[in-house]
Amino acid sequence: MVKLRNITMHEDGTVSMDCHVIDRIKRPDFFLHFNPKTREIYSDMTDIDYYYAGHAVLHIYFLVKDGIKLPKESTAAWV
Questions:
Q1: d(C-alpha 6, C-alpha 3), whole Å
Q2: Cβ neighbours of residue 15 under 8 Å, at least 6 residues apart?
């Protein structure tokens, strides 16, 4: 699971968030900036775990696509 914190929708339609990986193996936290329209991911960090970033981005993408107001915190989980 990825705990998303400080989820913020910006005026240009992009979304920024802090990501905290909840897993048995310790992974570093990372910051993402995502554009749901173009599906581009931006980050100034080099140690992003793209597996977990993908789940975070998909979670946000579907919330935005479905017109759901973004919460300040959320959890991206998968089975």
A1: 10
A2: 7, 8, 9, 33, 34, 35, 36, 60, 64, 70
What is the C-alpha to C-alpha distance for residues 23 and 7, in angstroms, rounded to an integer? 21
Tokens matching residue 20: 């905290």
Pick from 4, 24, 7, 3: nearest CA to 16: 7
Is residue 43 left, alpha or beta, with left meaning phi > 0 and alpha meaning psi from -120 to 50? Answer: beta
Q: What is the pTM of this model?
A: 0.83
| 3-class secondary structure, 7 | strand
- State pLDDT tens for residues 29-77: 888 999 998 888 888 777 777 888 888 889 999 999 898 899 999 998 7
